[in-house]
């Protein structure tokens, strides 16, 4: 075992204890069993997999091999038999098991091991093997270098801050001959355990240096498949994000286009309102302004028949200026006083007689009135005067 592995072993042991103490292992075991029960037997054999333990035990002068959980042995052979015969018997007993899943455990009699129950502080759980080695001289008549040992934590009630553990030790003189006999038969075991009833105690007395290293191609394949599944999941999420981004960009472009169209519509509506306002202003101005025809008609009706105009002008401010001749120019003020078209008639300058016509020459100014909604036609004045 490498130095790095030894330094990480306390953390791994702590993680294993936390995992075993949680309800997750029981839940997954129950769940897996329920799922496996729904599969056909052929499928269960095909997808079963996992480590399958076989127990190898010496009984008198023979070796017996049985599957964990079974009472009847699957293979037997006498000690000292030829290696080929032992290998053939072992292969025939485990032919239905995948070689990658096969695990062999050397099972020792209960009387061959020394077991002691310990009450330890909770802090000792992180270095249980070292604590067991320290307690070896106090709990057993052996020294550490004389035994193979293992310590396991017990699931038993204990005082607060403490826990129960069990120390299992086997003298090296007892185990080494058995291991040497199996190695001579080219049989390598994965664990050394102690018999407990029809099963095993659940410890491994095999020294770490003698535990066979196994490569599990199936585990590597499973890890590769898991990595591929994670990669595919990440790619799927990235594709989903890309699709969402493309959809968002498309929607943003559509929104920008609709905003531009809305701005154009608003500009057209404003232009239409401006044009309508301008047209309405012109219409109102035209309606409120007296036309030239109305002005001429009103002046024609109000001025006497013996008066005439020589010049008529209207400036943009609505001021009317007209020049002409009349027998009595001063009477024109009264004639235009009640006009609905012009207001404030006044003479501009002085009234001068014209020697040629004998009439008075005048120049008048007035202001146009705003046209009303229902302007009555101007009444005729004393336009019935006598002609000159």
From TrEMBL:
Keywords: Membrane, Transmembrane, Transmembrane helix. SUPFAM superfamilies: Actin-like ATPase domain. Residues 369-388 are annotated as: Disordered. It comes from the Bacteria. The chain crosses the membrane at residues 221-241. It holds the Pfam family PilN. Residues 370-388 have a biased composition (Low complexity). This is PilN domain-containing protein.
């Amino acid at each position: 075992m490498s130095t790095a592995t030894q330094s990480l072993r306390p953390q791994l042991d702590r993680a294993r204890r936390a995992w075993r103490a949680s309800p997750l292992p029981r839940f997954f075991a129950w769940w897996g069993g329920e799922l496996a029960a729904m599969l056909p037997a052929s499928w269960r054999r095909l997808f079963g997999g996992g480590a399958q333990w076989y127990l190898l035990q010496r009984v008198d002068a023979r070796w017996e091999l049985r599957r964990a959980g079974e009472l009847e042995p699957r293979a037997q052979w006498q000690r000292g038999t030829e290696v080929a015969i032992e290998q053939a018997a072992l292969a025939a007993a485990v032919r239905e098991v995948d070689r990658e899943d096969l695990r062999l455990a050397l099972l020792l009699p209960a009387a061959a091991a020394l077991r002691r129950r310990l009450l330890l502080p909770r802090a000792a759980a992180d270095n249980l093997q070292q604590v067991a080695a320290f307690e070896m001289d106090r709990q057993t008549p052996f020294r550490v270098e004389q035994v193979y040992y293992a310590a396991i934590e017990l699931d038993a009630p204990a005082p607060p801050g403490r826990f129960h553990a069990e120390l299992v030790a086997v003298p090296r003189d007892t185990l080494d001959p058995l291991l040497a006999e199996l190695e001579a038969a080219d049989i390598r075991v994965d664990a050394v355990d102690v018999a407990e009833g029809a099963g095993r105690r659940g410890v491994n007395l095999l020294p770490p240096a003698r535990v066979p290293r196994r490569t599990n191609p199936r585990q590597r394949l499973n890890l590769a498949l898991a990595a591929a599944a994670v990669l595919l999941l990440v790619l799927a999420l990235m594709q989903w994000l890309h699709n969402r981004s493309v959809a968002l960009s498309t929607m943003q472009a559509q929104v920008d286009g609709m905003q531009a169209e809305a701005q154009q519509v608003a500009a057209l509506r404003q232009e239409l309102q401006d044009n309508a306002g301008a047209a309405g202003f012109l219409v109102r101005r035209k309606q409120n302004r007296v036309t030239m025809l109305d002005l001429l008609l009103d002046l024609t009706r109000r001025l006497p028949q013996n008066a005439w105009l020589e010049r008529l002008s209207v400036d943009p401010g609505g001021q009317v200026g007209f020049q002409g001749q009349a027998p009595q120019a001063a009477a024109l003020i009264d004639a235009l006083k009640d006009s609905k078209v012009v207001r404030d008639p006044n003479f501009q300058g002085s009234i001068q007689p014209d020697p040629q016509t004998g009439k008075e020459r005048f120049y008048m100014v007035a202001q146009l009135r705003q046209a009303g909604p229902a302007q009555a036609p101007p009444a005729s004045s004393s336009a019935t005067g006598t002609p000159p």
